[in-house]
Amino acid sequence: MTPLRTITDALHQCAEIGQATVLATVVRVVGSSYGGVGTRMVVRVDGTTVGIVSGGCLESDLAGHARRVHESGRAEVVSYDTRADDDAVWGLGLGCNGLIDVLLEPLPPNHAAAVASLLATALDADAPRVLATVIHVDASASGAPAVGAHALLDGDDARTTGAWGDGRALAAAHANAGDAFGAGRGGLVRETDGVRLAFEVVAPTVELLICGSGPDAVPVARLATQLGWDVTVVDHRPVEHAHPERFPGARVAECADAARLGDYVPLRARTAAVVMSHHFARDADYLHALLAARPQPSSTAGVAYVGVLGPRSRTERMLAELASRGAPAGSPAVDARLHGPIGLDVGGDGPEAIALSIIAEVSAVVHGREGGFLRDRRAPLHAPPHAPAARAMTHDAR
C-alpha cells in the first residue's frame, strides 16, 4: 500500500498551493480486503489521485463519490460489501469477500494541512499512537462532534482536528483507545450517545540508518525510501564526497568519528541500523556506538535492529574486539538485536539482491515477524503494529 508518509506529503502539497482535496480512508474492514484500516487515497479536485485503497478495484468508484463529497462539503462513509459469492451488485467483480467502509472527507487547504500535521506527528512518534475519527453522528445527537473530526491520542493527551462538540465524544475516544491495539487491521468501531468512532493504530515510520555510502548502499537506501521509511546515510567523509544525489529521498550526514555516531545522528528506539562501510575498524566503531546507545536515559533497550554486512567470522572478530574494550557484546539483549550476517535467506546475487534481503529482514524484525512463507502461517496474516520484535534468527555466512 502507499506509505502514509506519501499521503501526508500529498496533503501538505495541496495545502501549500491552496488546493482543496478529498481524503479517502478505510475505517472498517470485516472479512478480507486488499488494505486494512488506515489505508488512504488522496483525490484532488482535478481528478488525479495519490495512493490506492483496494489494489485498483474501488478507486474509480471512490473518485466519483469524492467529486460529490467535494461539491457538498460534507464528509460521508461509503460501504462496499463483497462477502456474497456474487458481488455483481457493485459491477466490480472484486471477489474479496469482505466489507469495507471508506470515509470520504472534503478538506479545504487549512484543514488538509491540519490533518497532514496530525498524521506526521504520529509517524514521528517513538511509539504507536491511536487515531480516533468520527464517522457517523445521529441527527438527534446533541453536543456532538462533526463527522471527520480526528483525535490523536497519547495517554491522557489528545491532539485534535475538526469540531469535537461538548467533549463527551472525546472522552469516549480516550476510554476506548486501549482496545484499538488488539483490533488488528480490521480496526475498531464503537458507538456512544449517537456518535460512531473508528479507531486506528498508527505505527511510527521506520528509521533506517545506513553506515556507509558505497555502491551497495544505494539499492538499500532506494528500497527503504520506496517503502516510506526515513533513511539516513552516514559517511566518514564530508557530505559532498558522499554524493547525496545518489541517495534521493534520504538524508546524507558526515560522521567523522564512527565511535561517536550518536553525536552526529539521533539513535532512537525505532532506529534500525545497517553497518556496511567495508572498513573493519570503522564498522567496529559503528557497531560499538549502536550497541551502547540508550535512546532514553532510563532505558535498558537500545536501537531496534543492528545488522552487519559480511561473513559471520568478521562480525565475531568485531564483537571480540569490542569485548576486549569492555563494550557490550555477547549479552542476550545484544544478541536479540544483532544480525550478522545480515539479511533473510532469499537467494540471488549482486547488490540489488543483497539489498532486498536486508530490507526484508529489517521489515520482518520491526514488525515482529519471522520472515517465513505466508502459506505456512497459521495465525492471521496481519498483526497489530505494536507487535514485539521477532526472535533473533540464525543466518549462514554470506
- The shape, in one word, is elongated
Number of helices: 10
Low-confidence stretches: 87-95, 385-398
Number of domains: 2
Largest sheet: 6 strands, parallel
Number of strands: 16
The gyration radius over C-alpha positions equals: 23 Å
Q: Estimate the strand proportion.
A: 15-25%
H and E string:
HEEEHEEHEEEHEEEHEEHEHEHHEH
Descriptive report:
- This protein has two domains: 4-202, no CATH class; 207-376, Rossmann fold (3-Layer(aba) Sandwich), CATH 3.40.50.720.
- The strands form three sheets. Strands 13-12-11-14-15-16 form a six-stranded parallel β-sheet, with helices on both faces.
- Helix content is 29%, strand content 23%.
- It has helices spanning 4-16, 59-72, 109-123, 168-176, 217-226, 261-264, 280-292, 312-324, 332-337, 350-366, and strands spanning 21-31, 40-44, 49-50, 76-81, 98-107, 129-137, 150-154, 157-161, 188-192, 195-202, 207-211, 230-235, 251-254, 271-275, 305-308, 338-339.
- α1 (4-16) packs antiparallel against α3, α5 crosses α10 (350-366) and α7 crosses α8.
- The protein has 398 residues and is of the alpha/beta class.
